[in-house]
Amino acid sequence: MSAEPGAGPAAGQGPGAEVLIDASLFLGMHSLDERVRSACKNFFVRHLAARHALAMTLEQVGLCDDLVWRRTREEQDAYYPFMDNLHSELSITRFGFRRGDLAAALDSPGLEGLPLSDALLLAPAVHRGGSLHTASPRLLGRRRLGLPVTAPPDGPELAFPPRLEALYRDSLALRCDLADLDRISSPDDLDTT
């Protein structure tokens, strides 16, 4: 999603919005599914090491918090030191929707018929001509429809720098089923295919 070198941000693209991520990718580092957990963690380990800029909608940041706030106080206390440190060390642009994103969600032919929450999630990628990096089983299951989604690749588990890795290991007191994000974000749309 980056513009050509020296050209500045692409039309409708905020600074640092090269790689669009969602709540499922971020919380995927705490997935009950070990393959998904490792793949999502590796995504962030690699992007932290390479200092790649990431972008996430404010709605997706809130969705992460909403899922965590539904957990026990002990799980939250184990999780948040890692999350706080990772958000501080990674270059993540958090942004609100723009008019072009809303127009894309409602008017883009490729997003027709999707639950509104999914159309809004994908709209910044469609509007900016990129793709969404996700671990959402619901979205990845619809790749065949041409949705602009990318899954993190599988591979042997990598480690964060030592201090962050220790916080990550502690944060694994919280584990989640990524389908819970769909139940929170779009409960009325779960029967839509």
Number of helices: 9
Instruction: State the share of residues found in helices, binned by percent.
Output: 40-55%
CATH class call: Alpha Beta
Oligomer class = single chain
Give the mean pLDDT.
86
Radius of gyration: 16 Å
* Beta-strand content bin: 5-15%
Global outline: globular
How does the helix and strand content classify structurally? alpha/beta
Low-confidence segments, ≥5 residues, pLDDT <50?
A: 1-17
For the sheet with most strands, the description reads: 5 strands, parallel
How many domain modules? 1
H-E string:
EHHEHHEHHEHEHH
Instruction: Name the CATH architecture.
Output: 3-Layer(aba) Sandwich
| CATH homologous superfamily identity | 5'-nuclease
Distance between the termini: 28 Å
Question: How are strands sequenced across the largest beta sheet?
Answer: 3-2-1-4-5
Q: What this model shows, in words?
A:
This protein is of the alpha/beta class and about 190 residues long. It has one domain: 3-Layer(aba) Sandwich (Rossmann fold). The protein has helices spanning about 25, 35-50, 60-70, 75-90, 100-105, 115-130, 135-140, 160-170, 180-185, and strands at about 20, 55, 90-95, 130-135, 150. Strand 4, helix 7 (about 135-140) and strand 5 form a beta-alpha-beta unit. Helix 3 packs across helix 9 and helix 4 (about 75-90) packs antiparallel against helix 8 (about 160-170). It is globular, with a radius of gyration of 16 Å. Residues about 1-15 have low confidence and may be disordered. Pfam families: DUF6190. It comes from Kitasatospora cystarginea. This is DUF6190 family protein.
